[in-house]
Prior knowledge:
- It is built from eight helices and 13 strands.
- By secondary structure, it is of the alpha+beta class.
- It binds adenosine-5'-triphosphate (ATP) and manganese (II) ion (2 copies).
- One manganese (II) ion (MN) binds at residues 138, 140, 173, 177.
- This is DNA ligase (ATP).
Amino acid sequence: TGMPKAAKTAKAKSTPDVTLTHPDRVYWPDEGVTKQGLADYYAEVWDHMAPFIVGRPLALLRSPDGITGKGFFQKHAWKGLNKSIDLVPDPKEKGEEPLIAIHDLTGLTALVQAAVLEIHPWGSTVKDWEHPDTLILDLDPGDGVSWQEMIAAAHEAKERLEAVGLAAFVKTSGGKGLHVVSPLKPKGAWPDLKEFTKAMADAMASDSPNKYVSTIAKAKRGGKILIDYLRNQRGQTAVAAYSTRARPGAAVSMPLAWDELSSVGPAYFTIVNAPQRLAALKRDPWATFRKSEAPLAIKTSAKKVRK
Length: 307
Ligand code: ATP
Ligand code: MN
Ligand code: MN
């Protein structure tokens, strides 16, 4: 089978300059995934994942005892961080501890050593903090919403994004929902992106009030899909493509081709089956992501509204 070969590659790749303490500690008990298994997983997916996490401030969910223990979100640097992890001071947070970024697989392995079970990047890079290069619509199903309805919502978001000249990509969250993501030329400022995505979420909700809501307060009524645009703000994050989730099932956030949606579910891809999926792919459905950057059409749409 192809498994031993894949495992060998992972071993070779996942040992760079970081010593994992307690490599046998079990992080996902149901699947038997250990700390070493997590490091091996990231070594396998690194080439695909790197463009979405390198050089970005990261919020990290750390769970030293695995998914059954207590987890905590951390975004500022702490003492004893491995040298491979970059400390990046937020230009707008003078006097605070720096934020955290990585630039290679060693850095990612160091995050595993620090018991990081989820990686949540900003939508802008440390080269250009104030100009987002990634738009994300976080589609959250209310109680009773079907997968078919989630797929329809994702397609509607895609059409609306494409109508203003943006490319649209989709990934599972590894939780309950989907993320529709557009690569942006980093020209517009954060408030422009928030305004644009708010207008889009509000339009979806007002055109189909029985299907969609754009505010968290209304989402509590259930049965509808929350079009959560609030990830599109400075300092906010969404889980990275290929990040694991600190939840039962060992699911990961998996980039998909649009026509794959109907054959999977939000937590279909896991630490266990994701490497096989990637190895079997003829073409990475997100291969053209960064090449597809387009500018936000905020000025055009604002003009239209004013008329
Ligand atoms: P699901 O599909 O289950 O909704 P999700 O990752 O989209 O999974 P959300 O609750 O919708 O989860 O949150 C969206 C994003 O907001 C998260 O991926 C995360 O980056 C960020 N987020 C949510 N809660 C927190 C938190 N307490 N601290 C930091 N970031 C958070
Ligand atoms: Mn969500
Ligand atoms: Mn959400």
